Amino acid sequence: MFAKAFSLTSVFLVFHALGFTQAEGMVNIKGSRYIPLYGRDSTVVEVKDFQIDKYPVTNIQFSEFLRQYPKWQKANVLKLYADDSYLRQFKNGTELINPQSGNSPVTHVSWFAAKAYCECQGKRLPTVDEWEYVAMADEVSPDARRKPSYNQEILAWYETPRTDEKSIGKSPKNYWGVYDLHGLVWEWTLDFNSVMISGESRKDVDKDSDLFCGSAAIGATDLMNYAAFMRYAFRGSVKARYSIKNLGFRCAKDIDVNP
Amino acid sequence: MKNIPVILFILFLAAGCKNDQATDHGTTVAYHCPMQCEGEKTYAEKGSCPICKMDLVEVENTTETASEGKFTDMSIYNLPSTWTTQDGEDIQLKDLQGDVLVMVMIYTSCKAACPRLVADMRNIEERLPENSKGKVRMIFVSIDPETDTPERLKAFAIENKMDDGPWLFLRSTEENTREFAAILAVSYKEISPIDFSHSNIISVFNHKGELAFQQEGLGVNSDNTIKHINEALKAM
After folding, report:
1. For residue B171, what are the contacts with CB-CB under 8 A and spacing of at least 6?
2. What average pLDDT does chain A have?
3. Which of A60, A153, A170, A211 could form a disulfide with A199 if both were Cys (CB 3.0 to 4.6 A apart)?
């Protein structure tokens, strides 16, 4: 009886694991501990195993979402959730102004819309720590942050205009099998509003400035990584209803250990 | 047997999307007489009017959908999240409609900025005009819902003599908290299990639930905040 129960459980577990491994368009990321650009000195961040979309969400995929959930179309969306730039590349309904742009990453999406999209796929947005963890890989190593070539390529992209109009998947995948983390658009993260770089760092050199408490505990641990510094600064400067031309997203998902 | 995990998985996927909730509820169908022989009277079932015998027609907007539609686009009353008060009562933000709301995000175990934010809130409350009594709610929203249980919020409220009158303490899930912080443009980050870094922003919402003013910083002069609260009161 126990044996039978055990075998059923293991079938269940194996099947469940397979089910997750095969989640379409996602790859498994093996979690680890690492020191992100920002964190308390000596604070190592732990990222658990998770899954992330191979590609950024495209215009065509977002158009399908708009068809299913009309309340996110730009004519219907609450202003609380999206500013006036929302879905500028779309006509009023689900149709793209430029039909050629279907495979370009969707941009002009607010954090609320990106979050809703992922939730409707049974997923969620990746956290800042997760996103940065996957994005510090180059083609061959999981942490390429010390390589001059890694930083140069990203900075070269930051200088290139209109990369948001390119199609996804045209450049090599990284160590994890993930495409386009760098090179096309910047991406929303679930806790983008956890970044404490705005305000005091611009207005005031005193880290105990009145806008933030505990800000002295937060400082750059790796100023070499200038590209990441720009990303953190950018996240600190946006609001959740902003819809920006070079800001898209992809989704992530927990790996469920208790089926 | 193998199918069960698949079904569970599909169910999980189907349950994952929270976005259609808002459209689902509030659509109870009611019928009324097109001639309105009995005024606003409605009937639960189709049939004919007992007075003029005309066929009853569907009422286009039931009260519930109407109330949902009346929030303006920028109103926080649109948020579907549920919050628990220090008395363990579950509410939605729309339950607070009609009052001017003064809100700040804190956590009760905070030793640095939060006591000053609490003092700032008390200072604002003391400066409110007499005639604003019962029209302004002073609200603390926890950014640490794990630690800040309703019991803990209650103890904090009592300790600070804020357990009645305009004072209200709210907590929700981590996800709802993150979303509400996004609405308020409040940044916060857990820097250890008992310590958060967070922005110090006091927000004023008018009676429609629209953001009217934000006071940034600690111990700042609250003249401007009071001015905006008074304007919001006048607009009621």
Report:
1. B83, B84, B141, B142, B145, B148, B149, B150, B153, B177
2. 81
3. A211
